[in-house]
Amino acid sequence: MTALAEDTKELLTLGTATLYEASGLDCFLDPAFRPSWDGAQMVGRAVPVSAQIGDNLALHHGIEAAGPGDVLVVDAGGAPFGYWGEVMAVAAQARGISGLVIDGGVRDTQQLASLGFPAFSTAISIRGTIKNWPGTVGRPITLRGRVVRRGDIVVADRDGIVVFPADEYDRVLAAARARAEKEASYLDRLRSGETTLDVYDFRQLGVPDGAR
Question: Could you say which residues bind substrate here (predicted)?
Answer without folding.
Answer: 85-88, 107
